[in-house]
Amino acid sequence: MKGLLLLYGECFRDGHHNSGVTDTPTSYLPQKEASLSHVAFCDAMKKKGVHMDVLIHTYPTKYEKDLRSWYTYPTTYYEKKRYPFKNSANAIASFMRIEKKIDRSYDFVLFTRLDILLKPTVHTLINPSWDKIYFFSQEFTGCEAFVCGFYEGNIPAVNPILEFIPKRFFHVLDHIDVHHTAWRKYYNLGIKELDFMVEEYYDADTYLDYNPYYKMANRPETHIHFDKGKKIDRTLFYTNKKIKCKTKKFKKF
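Structure for Glycosyltransferase, as requested:
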């Protein structure tokens, strides 16, 4: 079995999600720790009999030589020019043009951001034999942007930090979505085999919501899990049931 770990987005970041600061001395070690966690994940997959390759798509960095050296698995590296974007969502979407470079001979592709530190719990979480599209989790219920983790029609809003695409759904790579809207987009494309890796709600940002599976490098990590003890209720999906939950305004940096 062959798998691809596709790492996209900025690296050596310093500051909150609206910060464009990179390549600072203080950003070096957190990025190294994140990169080494990616290698550790590949090691875990190797023990499961999976040959892993890595694809990196990021902006130019003065630490490129070091970044490349940390990855001991076959790694393809692509640089992307910086352009001004209206918001971070548009910037992240621009990285998905890399889908044309993905070799379709892999058995699966796992998408995550280059600045994400994968905790050891991810090693046993990911099943390389999954035959559905898996997102990390449903978005937490504390976000005012979604109604208790849902879009209209009770379509789940997803935490897309980890997204698993098995070979049988590689046609979706032409429409790849690594945003909260991914479930809705794929569902509208006629794909019904969608699921979550975990049974709890988590926000994507580990500054706002703690989870034991990953954290964002060089960003403060909260130790409060907003929806602790609350399980995802799949009976609510695609229904007209009214959902009530408490939201919370979170302090920004």
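The longest strand covers residues 158-166.
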